[in-house]
Write a structure and sequence with these properties.
InterPro entries: AB_hydrolase_fold, FSH-like_dom. It comes from Lupinus albus. Keywords: Hydrolase. GO terms for molecular function: hydrolase activity. Pfam families: FSH1. This protein is an alpha/beta fold. The chain has one domain: Rossmann fold, CATH 3.40.50.1820. It has a three-stranded parallel sheet, sandwiched between helices. It has a two-stranded antiparallel ribbon with strand order 3-4. β5 and β6 form a beta hairpin. The longest helix has 15 residues. The termini are far apart.
Amino acid sequence: MGSIREKTVKKPRLLCLHGFRTSAEILKKQINKWPQSVLDKLDLVFVDAPFPSQGKSDVEAIFDPPYYEWFQFNKEFTEYTNFDECLQYIEDCMIQHGPFDGLLGFSQDVRLIMIRDIRI
């Protein structure tokens, strides 16, 4: 008599990077609005950006703090700071929590994903 074995399917593991002046918890709440049939097929890992927000968040009326930034700007948003530290932080997260099959980004961090890919 043969037995039927359930095939274990590995879910794609994604490192999820939240948007500008939000948080991992906020992105998790936003993504949890996706269809459950999609969420069931993914292994999502959420991390906060390394720097506390230095300004007002656009989501303050909807979500509670704390809020974080991946890198920082001057008041005019013309100069970026802590960018290399941010990329190193993301790489460290990938080593600590990985391996990953991909990155999921929203807003500010989409630029980070593109730049990270260019650097590799």
